[in-house]
Amino acid sequence: MTTHNDDVDWDRWPVADYLRENYREVHPSDAAVIAHHSAFYRRFPRGAIARSVELGAGPNLYPLILASGASRKIDAVEAGASNVAYLQDQICHRLDASWLPFHALCRRLNPDVPATLAGALAHVNVVHADVRTLPPGSYELASMHFVAEGATEDFAEFADFCRTFVRTVEPGGHLVAAFMENMPTHRIGPASRWPGCPVSPATVTEVFTPLTRDLDVTHIDTDPTLPDYGDSGMVLLTGVAEAVLGHWSGRH
């Protein structure tokens, strides 16, 4: 049977395992994403974006750090309780030192990023919500990292998730995203299994072309320093949202 987003208990996302496997150091693929996204964010003057959103933020802080150079307010929207708890703990109480090298790289590539990690995350508001409930056109900029292709095994639902991503910004709003390429259903930690929807630069381009203009899709090769989840690298995207009709269509 095909696993859909609503079949999964996202409150049980294995935060500690996920961070240990992926974010305790800056891997080459992280550095490549940060370099790509920093070039995107350098287009904007410091604080030029009043409100931006990170869809499905998870426990990954570097997209929030990147956005802090341009955004006065960043909503980190996340449905999973364990991820929300981690984000709130990081922003309100204590910061894991492992994020300091990520902040240093983001700031080196974009000096508009605040000088301290705490200063960068001071822009962030954690929102415990399903991204499908966000009102359309609420933001000037939307960011999404390793979410749509990891939320379902169904390509049509992946495409719906991408449509929801575009619709969160006003027409003419800016988009930046990263996807795992050819990510199958995979294991994190010793036991937990999570959905994957294999996508490629071609399929990402196919989904986003009707929704955007100024679309740019690029590829990063697989990173041998990361766990072998079965993926073949990453797909990176920037674009400008066109008006999108319709809404998330739910399960198929």
Automatic annotation (TrEMBL):
GO terms for molecular function: methyltransferase activity. One of its GO terms (biological process) is methylation. Keywords: Methyltransferase, S-adenosyl-L-methionine, Transferase. It comes from the Bacteria. This is Methyltransferase.
